[in-house]
Amino acid sequence: MRKPSQSSAPGSSTMAAMEVEDKQRRGPTPCCGKVGLKRGPWTSEEDEVLASFVRREGEGRWRTLPKRAGLLRCGKSCRLRWMNYLRPSIKHGPIAPDEEDLILRLHRLLGNRWSLIAGRIPGRTDNEIKNYWNTHLSKKLVGQGIDPRTHKPLATSVADAIHQPVPPQPYRNPNPSTIPSTAPTRAEDTQKNFSDRPNLQQNDDGDGWKNNECAVDRPLDQEGGNYDAREDGGIGIEYYTDDIFSSFLDSLINDDIFQPEHNNVIDDENNNDNSRSNNSDGSNQRMVPAPYAYTAPSVPAYELGTFWEDDLMAQTGIEEDVHEQFADHAGKY
DNA sequence: AAAAACGGCAACCGCCAAGTG
DNA sequence: GCACTTGGCGGTTGCCGTTTT
C-alpha cells in the first residue's frame, strides 16, 4: 500500500477517497506498498547487484526486475537508482561553470523541464539538475535580483505574478490545428529526441553535443530492439522534425540573443572559464560558450513567448512549421 | 563541546501518457 | 473502448553532513 500521502493537494480527503476507489478498481499501486521491501539509501551491495543485472539483462521490465535480480526493492526504486546513479555514462562530480551556464540558458527557454534540460547536458541527470537548480541556481538568481521562475527582475516579476501567475509559457500557438499530427508527447520529448537514437548517439563526428548526443546514453533494448523499430528504418518524420528542434535548441542556446541583458556583468567563475573548451571531466564534448552570467539586467528582460521568439526566428531563419515544433516540444506544461 | 540551524542531495511520491491484451 | 501495466516526469521529503551559535 502507498504510504499515506504527505503532499496531497488540498481537499485530500476527497483525494484519498478517490485513491481508495482507484485501488479497489485497479488493485494496489505498483511498487509502492509491498511489505518487506527495503527503502532508503542504497548499499554498495545492492548497487552492484542492480548494475550487474542491468548490464546483463538490459533495461526495462523494472517491475519484475527486483525479483529477477534478487533485490528487496520496488521496481521504481531500481529504475531510479539506475537512471540517476548507476548508469556508466553518468558524470559524477560538481557542476562545471559551463554546465551551469547551459542550465541557466535552458531553464530560461524550457522552464522546469528537467528531463529536457538534462537531455542537453552530457552526463547529467534530470534529478541532479533539478537539485542543483533548487539548491544553487535559484538562490543565486534571487541574490542577483532575478526571479528564478520567470528570469525577470524580481520587482517586475512580483508585479507580473499578480496578473500572470503562470510560469513562463514559451509559446502559444494561435492555430493549434496546424500542429503536426506527429507532434511528440511529453514522454517522447526526451525518449525519442535525445536518447533513443542510436544512429545519432553512435556517430563519430567528434561533436557529440550538437547532434542531440546526450552522454547519458541508454543502452539498446536487448530484448526486443524496440528502439527505432519503425519500418522506415528510423528516418521518419518525427526524426526529421526532432532534428530540426534539436538544432533549433542548439541555435537558441548558442545564440547571442541572450547577451544584451546579461553581458553587463560577468560572473567571476564564468570569467575564468568562458573560453574553455573542455568539460569538467576532461572530455572534449562541446559545451556552449558561456557569455551568459546572471546578474540583474540593466535592460528589460525578454519575455518568454513574446517578441524574443520573433527575433529568434529572424536570426535563425527557422520557418513557421519549426516554430510550431518548438512550441509543441517546449510549450507543454 | 554540544545543540541548533542550515544546506545538499538521494530517494520517494503522485500523476500522467502510452502501450498492451 | 476498457482495464491494466509500464515507464517517465516534476515536485517534495527527509536523511545526513556541515556550519553556526
Account of the protein in words:
The chain is mainly alpha-helical and 333 residues long. The chain has 2 domains: 31-86, Arc Repressor Mutant, subunit A (Orthogonal Bundle), CATH 1.10.10; 94-333, no CATH class. 47% of the residues lie in helices and 1% in strands. It has 15 helices and 2 strands. A hairpin with a 4-residue loop joins strand 1 and strand 2 (152-153). Helix 11 (237-254) crosses helix 15. The radius of gyration is 22 Å and the shape is elongated. The structure holds a DNA duplex (21 and 21 nucleotides).
Task: Compute the separation of the termini in Å.
Answer: 29 Å
Residues in helix, %: 40-55%
How large, in whole angstroms, is the Cα Rg?
A: 22 Å
**Count of alpha/pi helices:** 15
- Number of separate domains: 2
- Strand line-up of the largest beta sheet: 1-2
Q: Spell the H/E element sequence.
A: HHHHHHHEEHHHHHHHH
Globular, elongated, flat, extended or rod-shaped: what is the shape? elongated
Low-confidence stretches: 1-32, 161-241, 256-333
Number of distinct beta strands: 2
Region (Disordered): 1-31, 163-228, 262-288
Keywords: DNA-binding, Nucleus, Repeat, Transcription, Transcription regulation
Domain HTH myb-type: 34-86, 87-141
Domain Myb-like: 34-86, 87-137
